[in-house]
Every structure is written in structure tokens, then in C-alpha cells.
Amino acid sequence: xxxxSLSAALHAFDRSNKxxxxxxxxxxxxxEIGAGIGMWPRTWKIMQELELDEPLGHFLPSFPDNSEHxxxxxxxxxxxxxxxxxxxxxxxxxxxxHRADVQQTFLKKCDPASxxxxxxxxxxxxxxxxxxxxxxxxxxxxxxxxxxxxDGIKSVVRxxxxxxQGLSHSASLDPVWTGTMVYRGLIEQAALExxxxxxxxxxxxxxxxxxxxVQHEDGKVLVNVAAFVGNPEKENTPYSEAPISATCxxxxxxxxxxxxxxxxxxxxxxxxxxxxxxxxxxxxLDSYASGRIFVGGDAAHAMPPHQGSGAGQAIEDAYxxxxxxxxxxxxxxxxxKISEVYxxxxxxxxxxxxxxxxxxxxxxxxxxxxxxxxxxGDTNIPFENxxxxxxxxxxxxxxxxxxxxxxxxxxALEMLAGSL
Length: 420
What we know:
GO molecular function: FAD binding; oxidoreductase activity
Number of helices: 14
Mean pLDDT: 89
Organism: Hypholoma sublateritium (strain FD-334 SS-4)
GO biological process, one term: secondary metabolite biosynthetic process
CATH topology of the largest domain: FAD/NAD(P)-binding domain
Protein name: FAD-binding domain-containing protein
InterPro entries: FAD-bd, FAD/NAD-bd_sf, FAD_monoxygenase
Low-confidence stretches: 202-207
Number of strands: 18
Shape: globular
Largest sheet: 6 strands, antiparallel
Distance between the termini: 32 Å
Oligomer: single chain
Number of domains: 2
């Protein structure tokens, strides 16, 4: 998502066509990984700046506005009779898309000639001439003035950046496992309606399942399901030791969620071939850029999905970097300064959201300080304690609709202007 959003942003802002953009994708073709993708008002404002709101709006039941909406219904569902805790109300709309639709929308903003598939980066090296030499798995190579690694949680560029900085033994070199597996899938609304008419997730969401509707390109309304099963004792263990991603039998997830309320059981019974992934994240990086080398997206701040902000933060990385690179007075000579500014603005923000995502996940699962006594299926929790959890969740998330990325853009451009 990060690479496509950067390419789209550069094409949108480079009015003078001073940049030659090349996007290298390791897969044989660009396809979606995962299922649904969420967008908060903060990210939607960036879509408006990139003039992507209109094409993305075709995948929504109604066009977003800035009035107050219920983003989520917070429920305690790990019991036979679920408990409504609180509606999370926000100014603006929390949006859900099929990931493939977002990717294809971004791709249409890119020059097809600039997209190169089946190009897995194996190494890179900064050259004495002031460029970067790229070496790919197929034996081919390329050169560039700036290398931006948005190459995922197992990023080759991140490793090279840390080694360049003398941090070859950094704890951030490789991802860690959060101890949590997520079971994901898409359900056709009609199938869910057939076994549970009027199911609330057709219009709202549950946890800790996270569930929301998405409207696919073919017009079908789908329900995106992400069901989490965690083992806190495995938190921050090596990602390489986590179970591998795989399709699993429905009975596996039904067993994990046995005893949950009927609406949850109905959802899970509709998952014909759920896929499970280990959720990884990064121990925070001290730097997202050095010289001509930049990282963004999961390569910089891979995070659990508990704030629904992983893709949004990749888009912010792309948005701010594109603003800097397309500044009318940006030149090759300014690349080190652009690197410094990007790091100064994006590293604190990305790391902050990474930390907030971890905290929010602990709140969802009653693992936060003060709630250690709560057990799954506990029906005797005082409602004021449930309300307290809901208020803490709302506080953790409010930056996604109360704040705008434009303040960070203004800060970045002001810092760049100070060096001109």
C-alpha cells in the first residue's frame, strides 16, 4: 500500500514532471493481500488532497461528510448474552474498503510504465557518484537518486539502513511476533442475512472480532471479519518462530470462540475458508531515513491492526515525502535535508501510532493495567469498568478524527524552507 500511495502522490504533485518514478514490486503482479482496509477521517482528508476521494467514493454506500457518525459499536461478546457497552461517535466517517479496490484506485494514478513487477530487491549500495545501486533477485539492477523502501515488515531496505547507521545488531532489524494470530475472511452479506437476519455487523462493528461492511467493485456488499486469538506470553518473541500464514478449517476458529454470543457464532460459521496470519510488529526505529535511503509503511513502523491505522500511516509517510520531493525548490543537493526533515516529522508520529496500537489491543482484550483480574467469559464485570475501557479506547483513537496530517505537512515544509 505504501509504495502505491507514494507513486500516486508523486504523480499527483509533480506538476512539472521533474521526477522519474520507478516502482519495483517483488510479486509477479500486484494483487491484494488481506481483505478489508479501514480509513479514518484523517486519512480520508489525504485522499481528498490526492483527488482520490471521488473514485474511492464509488465503493461506498454514501459519500462521507463531516457530520457526527457512529464509527463502532463496542460490545462485550465473549458470553452467551452479549453486552452493549458504548457507541464510539466521531466527527466524520470511519470507512471500510476492499483492499483490492483501494490498490487498483491508487494504481490508476500511476504511470503503467513506471511499475515493474517480479523485482525482488536483494541488496543496495550508495555509490560515490551520489546515487543508489539496486540489485534484484533476477540478476537485473537499476540506479536511482533516492531509494524509498516500503517493502513490508521483512524489509530489505530497513536492514540496509540500520547496517549503514552501524546498527547491524539493532533489535529493530527484524520484526517480532505480538503473540497474536488473526483469522480473516470476507462474508457475503446475503449469506449472513440468511442465517441471522438483521445482524448488526451489516451496518456496525463488533470486537474483538473487528467487523465492518465493505462494498466491492462488483457491487456485492461483503462483511470483513478479523478475529484475534492472542497469547501474551509470546509477545515480542521472534517473528520467525510464529506459526506460518495458512488457510485453516472453520472448526479451528469456532473452537477458539466457543461460548461467545450467537451473533459471533453466526459470523464465524459463514467463514468457509478463513486465513490466519501471525501479527508482527517492530520495536521502534530511531530513524526512518539517512542520506538517500528512506523507509515507510510496515518497513518503518509495522504495527498491530488495533487502531486500524497501519495503511493510514503508510499513506501519511507517502503524502509528506511526496510534498517534500515535489517542492518547487527541491533538488538533488537537498536530498540529505529532505531525509532529515522526513525523519524529524514522520519518525515520532509513526512510532507514536505503533505504541498506541499496542495499547489499544490490550484494552480490547482486558490486558491493560487495572484489568488483569478479568477473565474471558466473565459476566460479573461491573458496567462502570466496561464503560471505563470504552472511554480509554475512544481516547486512544481520537487523533484519527480530531487531528489532520496537514499540521505535519506544514511543519515539514517550514523545516525545508529554513534550509533554502
